[in-house]
Write a structure and sequence with these properties.
The structure is a single chain. This protein has 6 helices and no strands. By secondary structure, the protein is an all-alpha fold. The protein is flat, with a radius of gyration of 21 Å.
């Protein structure tokens, strides 16, 4: 599953790039790039499952390898069609990627191995612990990296401004109801 998590993250980037290209009038580029990805995936799955007899783990590595090999093609399309630099793309994903990797590493060390003998209450508790811990590590790393980068304008600034606005409205309504 951990292998597929990284594959899923790369596929999210691919779909984001595809959406931008499609929305900006390049559907043929999106179709050709996605078709190339699928052909590469079919070939790598064939090698992993038939030739190497890799089983589910081999299939997961084949999917990850395909996503890794396809990513430069998607980034190339972004550059060719819209003139967007790969540096800009990687700058946009660097902090979330660092946060995800840190959360995975933290959970790998903190969470016990799954055991069929675990009770339902223990599994629910571990799930809640894992979710809260992963979220806290993700936020801490993204926030810390954003702060070290000089707090640039971006998604983090939008979220912080939104939270600040919600907090102010909440406190203002509480104070006005207390005055009444």
């Amino acid at each position: 599953m951990k292998i597929l998590a990284f594959n899923g993250a790369l596929m999210l980037f691919h779909s984001s790039i595809s959406s931008i290209l499609f929305g900006r009038g390049f559907p043929a580029r999106v179709m050709l790039t996605n078709a190339g990805h699928v052909l590469l995936l079919v070939g790598s799955m064939t090698v992993a499952l038939v030739v190497l007899e890799g089983g589910p783990r081999g299939a997961a590595f084949a999917a990850l390898g395909t996503a890794l090999l396809s990513t430069p093609i998607y980034i190339y399309q972004l550059r060719q069609c819209l003139g967007i630099s790969p540096r800009l793309f990687f700058g946009a994903i660097a902090r979330p990627l660092m946060g995800c990797v840190a959360a995975i590493v933290a959970l790998e060390f903190l969470m016990p191995e799954f055991d069929l003998a675990m009770g339902a209450l223990q599994m629910v508790g571990l799930l809640a612990f894992g979710l809260l811990t992963g979220f806290a590590v993700l936020l801490a790393v993204i926030g810390g990296a954003w702060h070290l980068a000089g707090r640039p304008a971006g998604a983090e600034r939008i979220v912080i401004d939104w939270i600040r606005g919600q907090w102010s409205r909440h406190n203002a309504s509480r104070l006005s109801s207390a005055d009444s």
